[in-house]
Records
---
Amino acid sequence: MRECFEVRDWDAAGRIGELEVPRAGVTVETPALLPVINPHVRTIEPSVLEAKFGAEILITNAYSLYGSDEHREDVLERGIHDLYDFSGAIMTDSGSFQLAEYGTIDVDTEEILQFQRDIGSDIGTPVDIPTPPDVPREQAEEELATTQERLELAETVDTGDMLVNGPIQGSTYPDLREAAADHADGTDLDVFPVGAVVPLLNNYRYADMIDLVAAAKRGLGEDAPVHLFGAGHPMMFALAVAMGCDLFDSAAYALYARDDRYLTVRGTEHLEDLDYFPCECPVCASTTPDELEAENARERERLLAEHNLHVTYGEMRRIKQAIRRGNLLELVETRARGHPTMLDGYRALVDHAAQLEETDPVSKDAFFYLSSESAARPEVLRHHQRLERLNAEGNVLLSEGDTNEAYDETWRVTPPFGPFPRDLSDVYPLNAEVPERLDVQAYEQAAEGVSRLVAANPDATFTLAYHDWPETALAAVPDEVSVYQLGVEDGDWD
């Protein structure tokens, strides 16, 4: 395990962890939000972030300080913690954002890492190449090779006890992202940002984002803390955490406030469009949209930024509680219903069920079947895999109804899991809360479970007694299985 990061709780690929930041002398609990602090314009002071919101870590741009006539000498003399009046951990970026925006910067990896060390940064960043989405593969490969050279150079720089980021690039090519992550994981670097995803997030390409994070996670060890660079909207935090992201940096709280935009976990509202505040934070509880609009621009911006932070930190706490309770995927499901592209992201997430299953706990409080996507969750996949290890002997009834003494064994059948020994009825996840009106996918997955059990027990004979299964599910039941519809044909044992 990496000495700086330890996982305490899992749910799917989401985790609550502890990131030890030795230079700051603090341990940051993850998933964690890093508010972005602009060195030149501070909508909310870092000391307020710490005192009012409990911020344990923030991020700022070392390149802006490096090139600043106003701040460079001051931060070198005083140190960044004193300059910002912040006692938690401070991560610094290297100028890669400016490189992506303007095409060039006047500093290299060695210089900027030494500068970050000298100003007292706790987590520094080399100058990687943030390759945008959808570029030609040749460009993505060339720029990734440059980034990897710089990561190797970063290993040779004397950074003292400062942790160092190892950014993962590769544009929208999952195989390049996985290879980049594998390379970064083999270095001595400490934290692993998945870079250049902001254009995807700005265009609501959550499914593509999930696929790229999944690829990066396949290349990284479980002890690697993952930072989703530039992801700051609370509506997508649960989705990204469920895929294994640990750190998020948000400039949205301030940038949106500057444009009179109001964050919610379902999206973004314009202040002028609100008649009521749908929030219980101190800002919203003490004013109305009309009153806030009447404030002077600076005060309105500050109050909106505070609201945005309350919503953002509140969602992080909600996610942690969901991980602890084992219902993170139910929270993701709820958030996915807030926007069609979030639903695309959730569907992409469950496409990686086999990857999620590797770390998903085998026991939780409850499994709630909420939609067709629930049929593809890792718990269903795990049950199907375990069916291949279970023995069924003789003439076996698989029934949605009661037992029947005419058979040697009677197993229960419950969509979406399929068959299981009746003694396991109260065991997670087979004690699932399932609606009476199920979708087709639940029955089709139950049929897949029947197929797995039959294939694993070729010497047994099977009969399926079912209630109103759709034709597509019945068609997926192996031909050698006898089938009866309960309440209609012989064999109604309800």
---
Amino acid sequence: MNAPRLIVGLGNPTDQHAHDRHNAGFWFIDALLRHYPGQMRPDAKFLGDVGEVRIGTQVVRLLKPMTYMNRSGQSVGALARFYRLEPADILVAYDELDLMPGSARLKLGGSSTHNGLRDITAHLGTPRYWRLRLGIGHPRSLNLNKSVVDFVLGKPSQSDQQLIDQATDRSVDHLPILMRDGWEIATQQLHGADPAMQQAKAARKGSPEAKPTDSL
């Protein structure tokens, strides 16, 4: 499959939400722009902030929907229709409750309870677009006595923010691989660089089951 022609970062506008976990997709676009020359500008036609950057030999459009999270699909759908983009040309970066802070995974399609993704799926007419899942953890897994709504609309701890930032930067670092070598190789390398997966792999190697038994 081809490299993405559009990268979308999901979040909520206004300074009130700038530091919310729910804005991890916006943080990804910000990190990308720190690595590559470019800037975002408001575009009423697409209900969001738009821009473009060159990654390797390819120019990629960027989008931050300014519709608030639950209506992200209005913005993504408008831009996709205007530029005649196929869903598989689109990569959407967002906050993932099912991954711990520090993890980042690529995925094509699938269902989701994330309101931003659900609206994008409705407007594109298919879930077959790419996702960059940036782990923020779940209040239950982090032992926090909070509702999911309060959690995603809250600020991460300093240590969790550092882990999220590291995963975000690591994802940006893998974009040239994606543009040059495609989704499969980029996915393998990004997932292989995930600290959680590295720890699990090391644990498997060190387990008694993984060691050969002595001959009697």
---
Amino acid sequence: MMQVNGGARPTQRTIAERAGVSVAAVSRALADDPKIAEHTRAQIKEIAAQIGYIPDRAAQRLRTGRTQVINLILPPHEEIFGFGTSLISGISRALSATSYHLVVTPDFGLEEQGNVIERVVQNRLADGIIFSRTAPHDRRVRYLLEADFPFICHGRTELATPHPYVDFDNFEFARQATEQLVGSGAERLAIVLPPENLTFRQHLLHGFMTAVRAVGVAHEIVDSVSLDSDAAALKSAMQDRFHAGSPPDGLVCPGEMAGLAALAAVQDTGLVPGRDVKLVIKQASGVFDLVRPKVGSLYEDLEGAGFELATRLLRRIAGEPVESLQHVQRVLGAPGR
């Protein structure tokens, strides 16, 4: 990094003097104003990087009314390993070429749902909010729509008013997973689902039921636990089921923790994975590529979800219509495919 003015903090005026343009042109170029020629924008950004220019966010906020902050509300998410890390990586990649930076606010459920978001909105702590684990009639979505505050959620709702979202096609995952199990010879299928208050439970259940009804196989819901149950509870519940009469010989696990618990339950019951009980697991971290014996899996691209969330939120902040900011990710057979 180049030293400027004897160590003084470089400003937009410093950039303007080096580039031979006005301070206003520098400001507009750094904000990616398309009215500034692309080569001029590139030159100004290169000079800014060379001299170590860092925007004065307090001055920016006074001038524009914007914080240049995106706030990610991140709950605990033990169902998928590395959920937060993957999402943050994708969001950061999308923001890297912008003036926005990411603030992560943990939400461990110690407050009533929505209080964290209300605090961000009321104190104008960010220009936009990202959050996950949506409910069919999510009060956070209703609040943000009424407040006309830019947001996007990881997951859909059933609210009549359109809103921005990025979601994974859980219907298609459950349908494909079920068809894989049937195709491998399973005749008594079961699925572990999320809690009833989460929207993607309905999508998973619909996909599962669509597939089992199409082929007419026996099926059941593992209803004594959910994807939010801890590993010990998941393992115990599935082990009890394998010990009972007419146990399932095919299991859909829409989460990595549930998949590991199921694999442990199968083997601790004296059964052989892949022979006595076949499994298809939704994974994002790739951990099941290293598990032996191998089990079936389908992939959710969480880093890609983070990138899409941030990209669409920036477009919402810029005023783009909501209807163009809804995206459902497809199911992947392997990472990146």
---
Amino acid sequence: MRALPRLAVRPFANRTSRATCQRLLARRTYANIAAHKFGQPLHETHPHLLKPGELSPGITAVEYHERRARLAKSLPRGGIAVLPSSEIKTRSGAVFYEFHQQPDFFYLTGFTEPEALAVIAREESELGYSFHLFVRPKDNHAEVWDGARSGIDAAKDVFNADESHDINRVASILPDLLQGSEVVYTDVLKPHRSQSSLSKLLGHGSTPTDGSLQSLLKAGNVKPLKPVMNQLRLTKSAAEVANMRKAGKLSGRSFTDAMRKSYKLEKDLWTDLGYGFRSRGLDGEAYVPVVAGGTNGLSIHYVRNDDALHDGQLVLVDAGGEYGGYITDITRTWPVNGKFSSAQKDLYNMVLNVQRSCVSMCREDASTTLDGLHRIATNGLQDGLRSLGFDISGNAMDVLFPHHVGHHIGLDVHDAPGFSRSEWLKEGQCITMEPGIYVPDDEKWPSHFRGMAIRIEDSICVTKENPLVLTTEAVKEVDDIEALRGGGSV
């Protein structure tokens, strides 16, 4: 297996003292931690999932500390950041959707429970910051129904908060924490429809209540936190890249296994992929996948996945697994019957050549941007389409290639949302490359290509000189795809 690329040294990585590391890795209250119940896995309770020192798979308590320290250093003197967790979303009645933690909150805390609030203030101290964590208290009755909670003590003793508090006391405690802060960085003032207890405590809604965070911040100097977090999350640590590489490798194997099989229904292919992700050790699907047979692939985000698959069609599959919160993003297109027709092969190889060319430029020394790579992809696809007999005058490319060629990935499928695609790509950033061609069933286009949808996507870590493709185990060469169904080995 190829060694991980050398990544830039993270700020604070060499400044964390031995004493600080020991404090962060210690369990300070629980004499027998494995006998207690917590709201998420710990090494002591789930050693098959986490290694010693890790708060979440692959990420140690020390790294979470370094992230908080980097955030604090990014704030001005007197700055403070306020981050709420995600909330449980109801599907209907008492039935709820699977919980997914708010990525910025998770990035800084490693805490995966709902109804929590992190307050991180810059301070001139050894750590460089103070960390307050509001969480749900232990509640025997509630835990009988909804599972264990970590509780207030664990917020300090496990998750290394300097001070921990009952989330129900936000309104009485938070004003004192904000007092004296010159500027507050937060995104909680965005419109929010939830009516959960955390939402009400934060004052979401049209009429903020007295003592709510919204009312507290109304007269203060408030700035959005998202731009600061984008900068912090954009460059991945070696541990983050390792998580994404594991997600990419195991997801890729699931794709390749799916290509070996013959399916009659989109939902059966979808089921096999999801099972493949989990059975190989991933946490599950990173997002609702696209499993699109034939002309269904002309819809970029087709997710019904309820149609039949027919001989002679292509099937376009955009899916990926998740590990420790980190995702992978893969798209492959292959023939339902395992054998490309002549026209399918011509269009597929054209898209593949463009994709390979773009992937090769995902390195810092190429001095390019995502927008620059999009222009390269567009020009390459235009030339390829011309050679195949397409008329690409007018708005043809807007129809045939309607989306951008790539985006950042990490804890989110579209990581660092709002970050400009015109910024230079740097070592340690992780992105996708996904050129595609979508040919409507229209007389304007050559008849033998009509109705075809082909997209090829890999997840990539940008390095100094040689891109690290995280998803190589999902085969994409025509000969390799056809060999899978023909009994050959890849």
